[in-house]
Structure formats: C-alpha cells, structure tokens
Amino acid sequence: MKKVLVLGAGLVSRPGVHYLLKQKNIQVTVASRTVSKAEVLVKGFPNGKAVQVNVENKDELTKLIKEHDIAISLLPWTHHLIVAELCIEHGKHMVTTSYVSPAMKALDEKVRAKNLLFLNEIGVDPGIDHMSAMKIIHEVEAEGGKVLHFYSYCGGLPAPKDNDNPFGYKFSWSPRGVVLASRNSAKYYENGKTIEVESKNLFANPEVEDIEGLGKFEVYPNRDSTPYKGDYNLKDALTVKRGTYRNIGWCETLRAIVNLGLVNETPVPAIKGSTFKKAMAYALQAKETDNLKELAAKKVGIPMNSKVIERMDWLGLFSDEVIPKADNLLDMLSDRMQEKLSFKEGEVDLLLLRHKFIVENKDKSKDLITSTLIDFGIPHGDSSMARTVSLPMAIATAMMADGRIEAIGVRIPNSKDIYEPVLAELENLNIKMVEKRSKM
C-alpha cells in the first residue's frame, strides 16, 4: 500500500483526489490549512485522511512528507521548492501541475542521485498539451516526416450557454493568477524569426480563430514558447507558438486595464475601505470629481463610449461602492472580478485546447494536422478545469505508485512511457483529443 500526500484542497483538487482514493493500493492524506476542505474531499473513503497543515511550518511539513511515498503539491507555485527540498532530503517522489521553474530544474542532479522522480507540468496547460503534442510529433517522425509549424492554444472559458457577462469570462481557477498572468511578456518563433512581446503589448494584436461548433475566439501569446522547440525536439520547426484562448473583447479590455496600472500590487494604504472611484482617481492621478471615464479612455487611447469603458463601468470600477478588503490595485481588481465573474450554481465551464501542425511528409507533400479537446464541466459537479488539471496528475501518480514509470529526475510528461498510458486513461474518463489530417 503506497501512501500519497496531497498538499492543498483548492478548486481543482477533487476529481484527482477522488481518482486516487478509488485505487485499491493507495492511501491518501489530504493536507490543507483549512482542514474542513480536506475533510469534504475524503469523506466516505476509508483509505482517505484529512489533516491540517501550515506549509510555512517546516516541522509540520517535514513530518507529513516523511510519512508518505509521494507528495503532490497543489499549493501555489511559490511553495513548491520547499516541498521539493524536503522530498529530496527524505527520499520521496513529487508531483506538481505547475511549470518547472529554473530553481526546480536546478534540482535535477540531486533528484537523480536519490533515484527519485519529480514529475511536473502534469495538468492540462501544461500537461495534456505536452502529451497530446508529443504523440503527434512522434507519429510524424516515425513516418519520416517533419513538423514545420506548430501552434498550441488553450483556454478555460464559460460554456457558450453560460457566457452571459460583458467580459466573456468566468473564473474556474485563481482570479489573482489570471490577472497576474496579464503582466507576462511573451516570446515565440514564427516563420524562422524570434518574436518578443513586451508585457504592455501582450494583448495588442490578438489573432482570431474559428472553432467549428463553438465560434470565434481571440488568441494571445502565452509566456515563452521558445524552449518547446527543444523540449518537443522540433528541430525543423520554423514556428513554435503557444497561446491562450479568450472570448472576443477580452484582449482590448485587459490591455486597457494593464495600461491603466490596475495590475500593480504595491500596497496603497488609502485604498483599503475606500471606494472604487477613489482608487481609480488614484490610479489616474486625478481628482475624484473629475470625469474618470473620460480620463481613463484618454490615457489608453480609446473612445469614452467604447466597449472597454462599458465593461470597466459594469465591473463597478467607477462606482461609489466600498472596496471591502484589498489594499492594492491588483487585489482590488481580482477580488472584484471574482465577485462579478463567477459561475452560478449549475453553470458549466469549457476547456478548449487545440494544436495545429503543418508537416512535411517523406514525399515532400504537406499536411495540416489538428488535435482538439473540447471539454465541458458537469452541471452541479466538477468543472472541466478541475477535471483536466487534476486527473492527469492523479493518473500519473497512480502509475508511479504502481512502479509503471521508471523515469527519474525533474521531468515533464513528454516521453511515450508517460503520455501513452495517461492519454489512454483520460480517454476512458471522456477527456479526448480529436485529431484530423488534411492535405495542403
């Protein structure tokens, strides 16, 4: 019987925890600062246990890690390193759904020396995207072909029937994380050139993609795509570009919000307990009595009667409502967005992931290959975001517990021994990429 420790009981944890609890050879401990959240997750499962933990208390965390074989960190990424170091010290495997940070990557030698596996990026994006892309890349290579252009776009959105607010968005994961991501710069390869996008221009030139059966979506570039040329062995690729799907209008609105300075997390004592109007006046370096909508529009170079200003007004950013608890502009914005852009009971989300490959075949002909995941949440049940993030993690963890993964080191799921069985099991759980191939 293998013992698995799950650190964190947040929005995406339930499907994965329940998958592990249904395995006959695994005992699961869910540890959370709020123990009631963990208790709900393990209720009804004799092989499940809930405990309270303060991850900043190293002694508490050490004791838990020592008692288990595999530690899953569903904590904010800032805590992953301390978990990783304790896992190395006590000889335990580790799993996360987060991107591999440089600090995590630097642990590879120590992890290998202990014959351990630290499997990261085993969620949806990153995760299912890696696995489904590598499946096609390896198939193309096996046929003697090569990938010339590779695009990979993903987004978590409200299902069309529940898309009923001016932003075209609802939160299925951390609102602060979504808002913070708006400060990222981006970098990718396109037609043989390296393209760099400053954070202030992240939303400046979105592409528009038409997804059959769903309609049109905006796409903006996602972080630094350039390492994936090596990670995916795309040695012949002229284009390697990853992006994020959003509904039409999101990019122009977020661009204005970023350029107004509303994603600044510097504490501003005057904001707490103040009004949104006063906070906007502060951001605009204006008086509360000024026409703030006009000044905001002017600052970002858009008409005052634009949809962008309408959306900000709908959010309440120019109102006399009191800011409940935030003491900085970023938290003011993310708290308000969470309040106004939330899923109501029974509403469902949409997870949209698509790869596009332009490949040159052995006979020099060219094909377009698409691989698409369209997945909806379950009404009154798990969201698609929760399922697609935590089920790959749980499947891989169960494989590690069974000794079915022999890899060691700090890894992502880009090898056949990991992606083939994980994708096959996801298909059994009705999470499936649909592939199409056509001549160009």
Please give the structural blueprint.
Blueprint: E1 2-7, H1 14-21, E2 26-32, H2 35-42, E3 48-52, H3 58-66, E4 70-73, H4 80-90, E5 93-96, H5 102-105, H6 108-113, E6 117-119, H7 128-142, E7 146-158, H8 175-181, E8 186-190, E9 193-197, E10 207-211, E11 215-221, H9 227-231, E12 239-246, H10 250-259, H11 276-283, H12 292-300, H13 307-315, H14 329-340, E13 349-360, E14 366-376, H15 384-401, E15 409-411, H16 416-428, E16 434-439
Parallel strand pairs: 1-2, 1-4, 2-3, 4-5, 5-6, 6-15, 7-12
Antiparallel strand pairs: 7-13, 8-9, 10-11, 11-12, 13-14, 14-16
Helix pairs in contact: 1-15, 3-4, 7-16, 8-14, 10-13, 15-16
Descriptive notes:
- With 440 residues, the chain is an alpha/beta fold.
- The chain has 3 domains: 2-119, NAD(P)-binding Rossmann-like Domain (Rossmann fold), CATH 3.40.50.720; 128-248 and 344-381 and 433-439, 2-Layer Sandwich (Dihydrodipicolinate Reductase, domain 2); 267-327, no CATH class.
- It has 16 helices and 16 strands.
- It has helices spanning 14-21, 35-42, 58-66, 80-90, 102-105, 108-113, 128-142, 175-181, 227-231, 250-259, 276-283, 292-300, 307-315, 329-340, 384-401, 416-428, and strands spanning 2-7, 26-32, 48-52, 70-73, 93-96, 117-119, 146-158, 186-190, 193-197, 207-211, 215-221, 239-246, 349-360, 366-376, 409-411, 434-439.
- Strands 3-2-1-4-5-6-15 form a 7-stranded parallel beta sheet, sandwiched between helices.
- Helix 1 (14-21) packs parallel to helix 15, helix 7 (128-142) packs across helix 16 (416-428) and helix 10 packs across helix 13 (307-315).
- The radius of gyration is 23 Å and the shape is globular.
- The N and C termini lie far apart (53 Å).
- The mean pLDDT is 95.
